[in-house]
Amino acid sequence: MVADTKTFIEMSRRAMHLEPILLEELIQKTVGRLNMKKSAGDIRIDTALEKTAPFILGDPADMDALFFHLLQNSLEAVDPANPHIRISSATNPLLPNRMQIEIFNTGIPITLADPEKLFSPFYSTKYFGSGFGLAIAHLAVKRNYGRLDIQPVLGKGTKVLMTLPSPGQND
């Protein structure tokens, strides 16, 4: 909890530095960190990333924290009988210079009585949760001009939808 609190405070105080980040490398690095913590275990993680737009635009430290906490939450929530996470990305012609990223896990669908509570520090649905994972993820997205939504997929799991800046075609 101390480390998560420190991350949250430092992120809120640190100046941002936006740069292109290769999404596939970021995901591989994050999964590697989680494997070192023995979090990923035998969970199948599939990716379907937009090949024509491989970069997001963001602060590297913020993006590391964002993907670490979102993937850690997905790993903790996955259905043990069907341990599967899918990460996909796509561009949207209606949102120029924006990348849409989805992280789906097969766990019990999240209940959204009050969705904003999910992003509040110290609020957790887990018995030993610190309540900082989604708060850090939400702060990282907001600082980097993005959007974060969590949606239940009835009978299947939970999906996290992010919209983040991407370098323009002329960048």
What does this structure look like?
The protein is of the alpha+beta class. It has four helices and seven strands, in the order αβαββαββαββ. The protein has a five-stranded mixed beta sheet with strand order 2-4-5-7-6. Strand 4 and strand 5 form a beta hairpin. Helix 2 crosses helix 3. It starts with a helix and ends in a 6-residue tail after the last strand.
Number of helices: 4
As laid out across the biggest beta sheet, the strand order is 2-4-5-7-6
Q: Which class of secondary structure composition applies to the elements?
A: alpha+beta
How much helix is in the residues?
25-40%
Radius of gyration, taken over Cα atoms and rounded to an integer in Å: 15 Å
Hey, roughly how much beta strand do the residues contain?
A: 25-35%
Distance between the termini: 39 Å
* Oligomer class: single chain
Total strands: the figure is 7
Report mean pLDDT, rounded to a whole number: 84
Largest sheet: 5 strands, mixed
Order of helices and strands: HEHEEHEEHEE
Gross geometry: globular
Ranges where pLDDT stays below 50 over 5 or more residues in a row are none
Short synopsis of the structure:
With 171 residues, the protein is an alpha+beta fold. It has four helices and seven strands; from the N terminus they run H-E-H-E-E-H-E-E-H-E-E.
Provide keyphrases for this structure.
29% strand, two-stranded antiparallel ribbon, alpha+beta, single chain
List the helices and strands and how they pair.
Layout: H1 2-13, E1 19-22, H2 23-36, E2 44-48, E3 55-58, H3 60-77, E4 84-92, E5 95-105, H4 133-143, E6 147-153, E7 157-165
Parallel strand pairs: 2-4
Antiparallel strand pairs: 1-3, 4-5, 5-7, 6-7
